Amino acid sequence: MDTQVKKKRAAQLNAEKFERTLNPENYYNKARSRFKEYYGTNFARFSRVKEFAKLLISHLFDESDFSEPKITTRIKDRESALEKFDREYRNSLERDAAEYEIKDHIDDIVGVRIACWYEDNIPEVVEKLRTAFDVKAIKDKTTELEEDHSRFGYKGIHLDVCFHQSRLQFPEYRGIEKFQFEIQVRTIVQNAWSEVDHKLKYKKEIPDVLKRRVVRMAALFELADQEFQLIRDETQKLEELTASDEIACPKKEEPKIDAFSLSRIFKTHFQDFIAQPYYVDQLAAQIRQADPAFTVSETKTAISTKLGLVNQYVRYLGEIGHKMAPFNKVRHCLYAYDNDKFQQMLFPGRIRNFDRWQKTGSVFPVTDKKPKAS
């Protein structure tokens, strides 16, 4: 019986080889039909892989040392998968009359894209992925495409992975633990260029003038990627310098107030308060708008000499049921330091109340009685 089975199988293989050699189109159509059946039968499995991959990666970066990356997932549609096979594999397989199944050549039916903020985050992301997935192959697209600057968007790292064997202890991973899929790791800017690049209808056989424009545009995106990282690095350096009161400036020239020096002042006078960078930046801009030449030392003087007065006012406000945030305390200090220069930093009602309190010890007009507490 075994001999008959072997003979039958051998005859089948010979027939298939004959078909691949003399009628490759027919062999391809059969393989195509088998792939369509495979795709439809396993679509629910693809969806599970996509869902669990995103969940696992999200948890992986919950407590990262860098900002959480943007994670997107997709299932390649059936026709796109077939087009990829035709484009990348069919010619060589038919030339060699090789036996093939289309599904064995499409390792990105499920795809995950991780877009991190800076290029130097990419190696860290890859190392984290190694701890959670069984990495089958890594393709460094950046190295491959160094000489093709117009394809900047395709830079980054591509990993072919399966779920790690440790996932087998969880029932929901059974049946998908050996399924291979692709994870792409790029920067936000590289990803943006990729999205733009996909919208370009023609990219190869186009006039030279258009090719040059595409190359210039890709170069601008690459420059933006580098500049974002440099700005981040310089920002960190300035924060470190500000923290040690070593702001670099020309000799005999007082440094002007900016977000970095103002942030340091907040840490000095409001130690238990976390000043959000956005609001520090906004307040620094308001100070510079009031007086573009206002210096760090003047800001320190205004706060150190007037904060006691403002704190007395804040205690009074507390007695009548009102509070004041540190940002508004600084605004009141500046106004008290120079009424004319900084009056635009406070609403008219706040100026009226503050001025009245300084004169009478109350925010209420002299003729009015303080309202009774309800």
Protein model, in words:
With 374 residues, the chain is α+β, with helices and mostly antiparallel strands. The chain folds into 2 domains: 2-225, Beta Polymerase, domain 2; 259-360, no CATH class. It is 58% helix and 9% strand. The chain is built from 14 helices and 5 strands. A 5-stranded mixed β-sheet has the order 1-2-5-4-3.
Top keywords for this entry?
Beta Polymerase, domain 2; five-stranded mixed beta sheet; 2 domains; 374 residues; elongated; 5 strands
How are the elements arranged and paired?
Blueprint lengths: L1 H21 L1 H18 L1 H18 L9 E6 L2 H18 L14 E7 L5 H11 E8 H4 L12 E7 L17 E7 H12 L8 H36 L15 H11 L7 H14 L5 H24 L6 H12 L1 H4 L5 H13 L14
Parallel strand pairs: 2-5
Antiparallel strand pairs: 1-2, 3-4, 4-5
Helix pairs in contact: 1-2, 7-8, 8-9, 9-10, 9-11, 11-12
Principal-axis shape equals elongated
Percent strand equals 5-15%
- The CATH topology assignment of the largest domain is Beta Polymerase, domain 2
Order of helices and strands: HHHEHEHEHEEHHHHHHHH
CATH superfamily of the largest domain: Beta Polymerase, domain 2
Q: Report the CATH architecture of the largest domain.
A: 2-Layer Sandwich
Instruction: Compute the number of helices.
Output: 14
Percent in helix: 55-70%
How would you characterize the largest beta sheet? 5 strands, mixed
The oligomeric status of these chains comes to single chain
State mean pLDDT (0 to 100 scale).
84
Strands, count = 5
Q: Can you tell me the residue ranges where pLDDT is under 50 for at least 5 consecutive residues?
A: 246-251
Radius of gyration: 33 Å
- Distance N terminus to C terminus? 99 Å
Please identify the top-level CATH class of the largest domain: Alpha Beta
